[in-house]
Amino acid sequence: MAKEILGHRPASLQVGALCTRLRDGKVQVMLITSRDTGRWVMPKGWPMRGRSLSGAARQEAWEEAGVKGHISSDPIGSFRYDKRLDGGLSVPTDVLVYHLRVDNTSKTFPEQHQRKRQWFSLNQAAKRVDEDGLQDILRALIR
């Protein structure tokens, strides 16, 4: 367990699903808009009791993006960002990223009225997201 040092809080942990599909032999990534600022992000959320970390990432992909598929059991990478909490406080948050190969995209899903979703090329997705670490993960997949 990380210790709190000189008033600095250890990072929180979230899990995310990098949702991909193949179209015309090229990888596409689904990004969704965040509920608060509308910027492009990947589906992610907090670990869930009774689910593995990858299982929680798969559940977030369903709730936030309406996609289902096969998810990796091990993370393909991680990144850190400042998560804004209710009330305006930001906390450093580490995100473990799991690869989800999308098999099914549903028209109806739990957060369909709260978010937009769109497929992007890897290069376009890397340009749309703000988090440097997520950009790095996407660019590594281009090679």
Automatic annotation (TrEMBL):
- Tell me which cofactor or cofactors this protein depends on: Mg(2+)
Q: Which Gene3D superfamilies match?
A: Nucleoside Triphosphate Pyrophosphohydrolase
Q: Which InterPro entries match?
A: DDP-like_NUDIX (IPR047198), NUDIX_hydrolase-like_dom_sf (IPR015797), NUDIX_hydrolase_dom (IPR000086)
Any one Gene Ontology MF annotation carried by this entry is: hydrolase activity
Q: Which UniProt keywords apply?
A: Hydrolase, Magnesium, Metal-binding
Domain Nudix hydrolase, residue spans: 12-142
Source organism, top-level taxon:
Bacteria
For this protein, the record's Pfam families field holds: NUDIX
> Which PANTHER family does the record cross-reference, listed alphabetically?
DIPHOSPHOINOSITOL POLYPHOSPHATE PHOSPHOHYDROLASE, DIPHOSPHOINOSITOL-POLYPHOSPHATE DIPHOSPHATASE
Q: What is this protein called?
A: NUDIX hydrolase
Organism of this sequence: Thioclava arctica
